[in-house]
From TrEMBL:
The chain crosses the membrane at residues 185-207, 237-255. Residues 33-102 form the PDZ domain. It comes from Candidatus Thiomargarita nelsonii. GO terms for cellular component: membrane. The lineage of its organism: Bacteria, Pseudomonadati, Pseudomonadota, Gammaproteobacteria, Thiotrichales. It is an enzyme of class 3 (hydrolase). GO terms for biological process: proteolysis. Belongs to the peptidase M50B family. This is Peptidase M50, putative membrane-associated zinc metallopeptidase. SMART domains: PDZ.
Length: 263
């Protein structure tokens, strides 16, 4: 339930039925579309910001600061129009008219085919930065850490109950790719990504699984309740279970990484 205000200034409550929505809808960027809503997006100029190394944009000769004027003689009004035009033409040649240093140029763009959509490897030069004082930064950090921890646990529960796909589990290859992409967007984005990974790994490390720190804490708790430690055979058996679970999780993560890499 949430409150809305109409044009006359009256407030009223609405209740949305979110049954059938999954984490997959959010991860695939289809939440608002499935909800039947389109979030407001200001008309940003189609100006190139950052370019990914080795991308289709770099091969075509695009440079940061280039302004898109037309695609195949069709005028481009804003960044959304440019992105949609490219997305609908994977692997196709596009005649792009751009403006660079007050001069007009013609370039041939060929978007890469990524899951059936065209991608140029270009980022918009528009970011929003919020600044806080020392105490505000501390409280915001605590809130963000708590939110990420809760989200990590929720995702794990939904994976165990088969509510979301195991394909969202990422391993070292995907983490390295995301780290490289975030580094290209600036130090703030890169540090935010490192914080996200660190908090998620900390939560996983505290799970009551043998071989992890959470597993040791569980054994200490059992020892405190019983008054004496568990037997060596029991501890060895639990460690074997924990090792099997960890190897299985790592194998699934690396399999997903390789599948994304080669597909």
């Amino acid at each position: 339930m949430y409150s809305v205000k109409n044009q006359q200034g009256y407030e009223y409550d609405l209740t949305l039925n979110l049954q059938g929505f999954t984490i997959d809808d959010i991860a695939q960027g289809a939440f608002f579309k499935k909800l039947g809503m389109r979030p407001f997006s200001p008309p940003w100029p189609a100006i190139v910001g950052e370019i990914t190394a080795g991308s289709a944009a770099e091969r075509a000769g695009l440079q940061p600061g280039d302004k898109m004027i037309a695609m195949d003689n069709q005028p481009i009004s804003d960044w959304t129009a440019w992105a949609n035009y490219v997305s609908e033409r994977p692997g196709q040649d596009i005649e792009a008219e751009i403006e660079r240093n007050n001069q007009k140029l013609i370039l041939i763009l060929r978007p890469e085919n990524v899951n059936g959509k065209g991608r140029m490897g270009v980022y918009a030069p528009y970011f929003v930065t919020e600044r806080y004082n020392l105490w505000g930064s501390f409280t915001q950090g605590l809130e963000k850490t708590w939110d990420i921890s809760v989200l990590t646990l929720r995702v794990m529960v939904k994976m165990l109950t088969l509510q979301i796909s195991h394909e969202h589990i990422s391993g070292p290859i995907s983490i390295a790719q995301f780290a490289g992409q975030s580094a290209q967007l600036g130090i703030v984005v890169f540090l935010s990504f490192l914080g996200l990974v660190s908090v998620s790994l900390a939560v996983i490390n505290l799970l009551p699984v043998p071989l992890l720190d959470g597993g040791h804490l569980l054994l200490y708790l059992i020892e405190w309740i019983k008054g004496n430690p568990v037997t060596e055979n029991t501890e060895f058996f639990l460690q074997r279970i924990g090792l099997t679970l960890l190897i299985g999780l790592m194998g699934l993560a690396i399999f997903n990484d390789l599948e994304r890499l080669f597909n």
